[in-house]
Amino acid sequence: MNKELEPGSEYNKYDTDGDGVVTDAELATTERLQALEIANEKADAQKNMCWFALFGMLLYPSGIVITSFLKLDQAASILGDIASVYFISVSGLIAAFFGFQSFRK
Fold first, then answer.
1. How many CA atoms lie within 13 A of 58 on its CB side?
2. Where are the domains of the chain?
3. In degrees, to the nearest 5, what angle opens at C-alpha 50 toward C-alphas 46 and 53?
4. CA distance 30 to 37
5. Could you read off the pLDDT of 18-30 as tens digits, one per residue?
6. Concatenated DSSP letters for the chain?
7. Cβ contacts of 76 within 8 Å, gap of 6 or more
8. pTM over 0.85
9. From CA 31, how far away is CA 10, in angstroms rounded?
């Protein structure tokens, strides 16, 4: 006994052949497509995180220069002291991202 969908049902989008019945195969296909979309969104988020970290690493020295220019010597000193830990952390994050990407392929 097949169950048919109501008109305007939220599950109509899973009926890929348009016959009004959502089969197990259609649900499985939809589930695989949703998993691919989620994986794609995750990869995009990781890529954006990596780019943000890279730009932060590239712009960090300008923060030190700007604070020195504005005569904020203590701020420049603190930023300079933090720089070693910051650069190691961010470069480790970026290296891990690219390493896992190449390992996965």
1. 7
2. 10-104
3. 135
4. 10
5. 777 777 787 788 8
6. -PPPPPTT-GGGGG-SS-SS---HHHHHHHHHHHHHHHHHHHHHHHHHHHHHHHHHHHHHHHHHHHHHHTT-HHHHHHHHHHHHHHHHHHHHHHHHHHHHHHHH-
7. 64, 67, 68
8. no
9. 15
Place of tokens 């089969």: 23
* The pair of three-digit structure tokens given for residue 62, joined into one six-digit string: 């300008």
Residue whose tokens read 């988020």: 45
- pLDDT tens for 66-89 read 888 888 888 888 888 888 898 898
Q: Contact, 25 vs 51, CB < 8 A?
A: no
- Contacts with 18 (C-beta within 8 Å, 6 or more apart), sequence order: none
**And the tokens for 2?**
């097949």
| Tokens standing for residue 22 | 């959502």
